[in-house]
């Protein structure tokens, strides 16, 4: 395909589906037009590795271009967690600043790139001034890291020479920023009297002796009382960091113990070819936060009576926590083990909620860490069964030719998503508004449809889909439990003012799409449709971890007779 006369959507499609051919097309580019520059930023945003390597090797002069906010391709790569940042950095201007004054170190501090510490060292070595540079708000990179839980990177910034005392335009030091966030460990690291963090680093395990020696040097000339206070602070900081590393090691051990258990090998069976004359089986799993544990246990009970249940699945679709569950099933983790993993996730993530109205209730750092530990580098192209997860992108950002919001189904039912990592997909689909900040500008799939089978009909029956005969399709749709009450109390709504609707509008939208999806399932499939909605007997919020024991009890005791009979008739044969 020549670039001349090609449609933007055709170029994007080629980039998404065949990077080798896209490179041949890109070789024809001379000096990119504004539209082609936008496509250039799209390439770096979507982490198209082969194309990025080609650009760095053959078209490195393109790395100087900036988008409407002053971001270069390098900054876009950092922002989106690319593994090729150092390759791009070697060919880029490291002193560039965006329109709001952020430099490359600001971006690194807020990024999710692999080996972030090593990349930071490289950048600061090349451009030391970036360490103390302030953006238009007066924030240095240390101010940015103060808003996170990345304690080790904060220590590294200090070791590289970052100043604790520099104030932003609101008169806030990095330590005060951390205190404002309620992050007391970060505050302890960044407050002025903590002067010894520079040799607490995972790369230097022998630092206990050198720390003592350094303290002697730093405390020379201080008063006896001052020495005692500072030594106490150092010991407290060392203890806090040791405890943090201990917790991280303990978490890894817990996860690895589960991940090393025997996998459900039947989920690895290749089912890339679809026989339209055979029954096509769909498992759909709703979102619901901690209630995902209930869904796991119900699936485990089903598997005990129907050993071929997983092997017979042709399509798994999930939303929010359901996206995590179906992704784990797709890589062979058994339902019981999924339950154990979701229990760990719930206990690790839903802790220390913030009460600030301008902040999400929880941080997603730990969720991201755990999901990346579980899924590693697994991508959509690595999954054998058909797969679909929904989410909603709130902003395509200014580098896009047509800035907009957009619904997404990450799936292998159509081309274009082969290189998407499962960890990224799950984080996007699980970023519930007000609970978590958007991830890569994506929010919870429940904003689209919390019962994801409702998004599959066009893929299954449409002219651009599989064109299956509905009579050959069966679907088991599993909910995260039916709350009680399951209605919007009209007495609370009254005349329907802002105050009355404020706490009810989210459930209203959720219940509406859920209700219609269930109805459409019956209309499409008739008796080949089964919706299982185990009664909870109360309302359980998605972050009520104290209710996990009750959820496990409900899941173990709920009557599955109807499910067993339906599976025997429509699923097992």
Automatic annotation (TrEMBL):
- Source organism per entry reads Entamoeba dispar (strain ATCC PRA-260 / SAW760)
Q: Report the top EC class in one word.
A: hydrolase
Q: Where is this motif: DGA/G?
A: 444-446
Specify the superkingdom: Eukaryota
Position of sequence motif GXSXG: 318-322
Molecular function (Gene Ontology), one example = phospholipase A2 activity
Q: Which UniProt keywords apply?
A: ANK repeat, Coiled coil, Hydrolase, Lipid degradation, Lipid metabolism
Entry's SUPFAM superfamilies? Ankyrin repeat, FabD/lysophospholipase-like
GO BP terms: namely:
lipid catabolic process
Residue numbers annotated as active site: 320, 444
Name of the protein in its database record: phospholipase A2
Which part of the chain is the PNPLA domain?
A: 283-457
**PROSITE patterns recorded for this chain?**
ANK_REP_REGION, ANK_REPEAT, PNPLA
Q: Which reaction does it catalyse?
A: a 1,2-diacyl-sn-glycero-3-phosphocholine + H2O = a 1-acyl-sn-glycero-3-phosphocholine + a fatty acid + H(+)
Establish whether keyword Hydrolase is in the entry: yes
Residue numbers of motif GXGXXG? 287-292
Task: Report the PANTHER family cross-referenced here.
Answer: INTRACELLLAR PHOSPHOLIPASE A FAMILY, PHOSPHOLIPASE A2
Q: EC number(s) in its UniProt entry?
A: 3.1.1.4
What residue spans do the ANK repeats cover? 137-169
- Coiled coil ranges (UniProt) are 190-261
């Amino acid at each position: 395909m020549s670039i001349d006369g090609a449609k933007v959507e055709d170029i994007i499609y080629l980039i998404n589906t065949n990077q080798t051919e896209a490179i041949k097309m890109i070789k024809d580019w001379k000096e990119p037009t504004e539209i082609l520059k936008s496509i250039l930023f799209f390439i770096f945003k979507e982490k198209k590795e082969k194309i990025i390597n080609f650009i760095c090797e053959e078209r490195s002069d393109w790395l100087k271009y900036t988008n409407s906010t002053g971001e270069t391709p390098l900054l876009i790569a950092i922002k989106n967690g690319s593994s090729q940042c150092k390759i791009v950095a070697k060919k880029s201007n490291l002193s560039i600043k965006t329109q709001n004054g952020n430099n490359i170190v600001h971006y690194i501090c807020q990024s999710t790139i692999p080996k972030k510490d090593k990349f930071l060292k490289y950048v600061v070595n090349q451009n030391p001034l970036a360490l103390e540079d302030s953006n238009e708000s007066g924030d240095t990179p240390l101010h940015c890291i103060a808003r996170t839980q990345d304690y080790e990177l904060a220590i590294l910034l200090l070791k590289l020479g970052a100043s604790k005392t520099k104030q932003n335009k609101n008169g806030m030091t990095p330590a005060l920023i951390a205190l404002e966030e309620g992050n007391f460990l970060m505050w302890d690291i960044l407050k002025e009297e903590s002067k010894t963090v520079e040799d607490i680093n995972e790369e230097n395990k022998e630092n206990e002796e050198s720390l003592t020696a350094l303290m002697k040097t730093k405390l020379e000339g201080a008063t006896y009382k001052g020495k005692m206070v500072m030594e106490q602070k150092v010991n407290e900081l060392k203890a806090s960091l040791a405890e943090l590393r201990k917790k991280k090691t303990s978490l890894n051990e817990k996860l690895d113990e589960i991940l090393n258990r025997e996998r459900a090998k039947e989920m690895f069976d290749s089912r890339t070819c679809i026989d339209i004359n055979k029954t096509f089986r769909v498992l759909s799993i709703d979102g619901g936060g901690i209630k995902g544990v209930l869904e796991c246990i119900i699936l485990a009970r089903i598997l005990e009576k129907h050993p071929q249940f997983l092997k017979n699945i042709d399509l798994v679709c999930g939303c929010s926590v359901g996206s995590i569950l179906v992704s784990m099933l797709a890589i062979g983790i058994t339902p019981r083990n999924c339950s154990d993993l979701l229990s760990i996730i719930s206990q690790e993530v839903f802790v220390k909620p913030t009460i600030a109205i301008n902040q999400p209730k929880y941080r997603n750092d730990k969720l991201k860490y755990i999901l990346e530990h579980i899924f590693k580098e697994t991508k959509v192209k690595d999954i054998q069964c058909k797969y679909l997860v929904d989410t909603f992108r709130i902003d395509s950002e200014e580098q896009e030719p047509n800035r907009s919001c957009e619904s997404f189904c990450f799936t292998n039912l159509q081309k274009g998503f082969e290189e998407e990592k499962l960890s990224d997909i799950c984080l996007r689909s699980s970023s519930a508004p007000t609970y978590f900040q958007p991830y890569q500008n994506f929010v919870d799939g429940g904003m689209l449809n919390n019962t994801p089978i409702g998004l599959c009909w066009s893929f299954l029956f449409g002219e651009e889909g599989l064109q299956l005969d509905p009579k050959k399709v069966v679907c088991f749709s599993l909910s995260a439990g039916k709350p009680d009450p399951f209605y919007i109390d009209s007495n609370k709504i009254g005349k329907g003012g802002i105050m009355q609707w404020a706490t009810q509008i989210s459930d209203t939208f959720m219940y509406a799409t859920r209700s219609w999806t269930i109805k459409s399932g019956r209309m499409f499939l008739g008796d080949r449709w089964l919706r299982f909605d185990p009664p909870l007997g109360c309302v359980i919020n998605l972050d009520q971890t104290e209710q996990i024991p009750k959820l496990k009890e409900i899941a173990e005791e709920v009557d599955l007779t109807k499910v067993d009979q339906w599976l025997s008739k429509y699923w097992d044969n």
